[in-house]
Amino acid sequence: MSRHPNSHMQEVVEYAEENGWELRLCKKGHAWGRIYCPHNDRDGCLHSINGTPQSPQHDAKRLRKLIDRCPHKDIGQTQDKDSQEDKDQINDNDQPEEKL
Amino acid sequence: MSNLFEFSIVFVESVSLTEELEDKVYGGRLADGQLSSIDGRVSILYEREANSLRDAVFGVFLDLKDAGLASKILCIDPSDLVSQVQIGKRLDRKRQQIHQYVSGSRGPGNFPKPVRYTEERKAVWSWAAVLKWFSANDILGINDLQAKHATEITMINSLLSSIHLRTIDSSLFKEIDDRFHSLVCGWEEFSTRIPWDLQGPVVLNSVPDDSEQSFDWAVQA
């Protein structure tokens, strides 16, 4: 398995893999690889990884934030929350003042 | 004074995350961005230092133009329309807390009204209006500048949207635009409130290509 030339980036790639993301290495070009979120049966999330980042520490931190923000994470749980929100709003807005 | 601004450039549907795009982004002045694709929609996340948010956004626009990607910009995120859940996520607060502000059981009341309802009667709010309310009531440490930034992004997105609508059907757009200007802009109620200069800072340079939904634009100094 190839490692990213920068340790900060390598660390975040390992974090992604620990969380079920899949790494696919690029054979050429400026990108070193791509990581795919576990929800890759349809589209899911795909983050491209720069092979020579200008600020590796900063870029690694940002990438980790994006991994944590994956909208497909706990997708069933999120849908339950949204359903609850819908119910709350319908209760609150039984008489909407104005529909645009 | 220079500040750090975070925003994403979201591309039109015809853009895919390919090796060619990666080389354009990571091989030049756009390389400080994070290129991603979420549910097939390609975007680049930036955190840039600039004197203002608009300076940061237009700086990226110019870099995208140099890379031949300006015609593919769809919009800037974070966008303006938000649900209660999204308000909570953006402010890093629980949904229940936001719900209390909305219902008036927490805070001073008079939370902004939703700007519209979806067919499922799910309400959506203007992010700029929400931030303005938090700022005006000194809640959650939101300040005027954050509300102003949300408005700036909404203005830029409105102009981008206008350009994209022209590319869908330029003759229909022109007819509606002409009628709007001759009719609505003549109304005293509007003309006294709004200085009508809808040419804006962004101008269409070429004949739109309907099939590509792309445009060629330039930023006027």
Overall number of strands of chain A: 3
In terms of quaternary structure, the protein is heterodimer
As a whole number of angstroms, the C-alpha radius of gyration of chain A is: 19 Å
| Unreliable spans of chain B | 198-221
Give the chain pair forming the largest contact, with residue counts: A-B, 39 and 34 residues
Along the chain, the helix and strand elements of chain B come as EHEEHEEHHEEHHHHEE
Structural class, from helix and strand content of chain A?
alpha+beta
Sequence of secondary-structure elements of chain A: HEEEHH
Low-confidence regions of chain A: 92-100
Count helical runs of chain A: 3
Q: Average pLDDT value of chain A?
A: 80
**Beta strand % of chain A:** 15-25%
Structural class category of chain B: alpha+beta
Question: How helix-rich are the residues of chain B, as a percent range?
Answer: 40-55%
Rg of chain B is: 19 Å
Topology record:
The complex is a heterodimer of chains A (100) and B (221).
Chain A lengths: L6 H12 L3 E4 L5 E6 L8 E6 L5 H13 L6 H18 L8
Antiparallel strand pairs in A: 1-2, 2-3
Chain B lengths: L2 E9 L7 H8 L7 E5 L2 E10 L2 H14 L6 E5 L3 E2 L1 H8 L3 H9 L12 E2 L5 E4 H10 L7 H25 L1 H14 L4 H4 L10 E3 L12 E3 L2
Antiparallel strand pairs in B: 1-3, 1-4, 2-3, 5-7, 6-7, 8-9
Helix pairs in contact in B: 3-4, 5-6, 6-7
